[in-house]
Amino acid sequence: MLTHAMQYTITLPADYDMAVIRRRVRDRGPLTDDFPGLVLKAYLVRERGVDGSPVNAYAPFYLWGDSAGLGSFLWGGRGFGGIVTDFGRPTVRHWIGAGLAAGPSARLTPRAATLHRTVLPDGADPAGPMAEAAADLAARAGTAGVHTTAVALDPDRWELVHATLWEREVPEGVLGDRFQLLHLSAPGLGEERPSELELS
């Protein structure tokens, strides 16, 4: 069950040694492998000059199955405090989960991700764009190389985020920011994965 999506981005100096972040993920990533309420956490990075990125950044992306788990992470002493201590408290973006689907590579280890944000037309009834998002989700779930794909909505900005994890490199022509995926914690996906969960 998907109820929330969440992301914060730590933008780092242009000359930052990204090996520091890689060690951090290697050491701390497994700590969320069985985090209660977590569907998945994708430990994402961008490196300046790689895949068109203008910046170095650490930008983990989360899908949550319930608000209790999200709260436990942010203020319950279960992880976010390390970010605050080491980098300061970042702004945390939050979306309402709308759909989640497994792709053809769901049982393989993903190595890349894309996040594509779109703003709903000004003043539009969200029913139409959400129906289109459902169709897009189904189409992306059938794309070769997709591990998992999800869509979520921020009703403050009326912004949709389409998040997709990829087995290997992101294919040419795929829209959105591209990330390297260093580690995936996915306690909420389970062994028996559904082929698709409808938008709710």
TrEMBL record:
The UniProt entry, under InterPro entries, shows: DUF4865
What is the protein named? DUF4865 family protein
Q: What's the source species for this entry?
A: Streptacidiphilus alkalitolerans
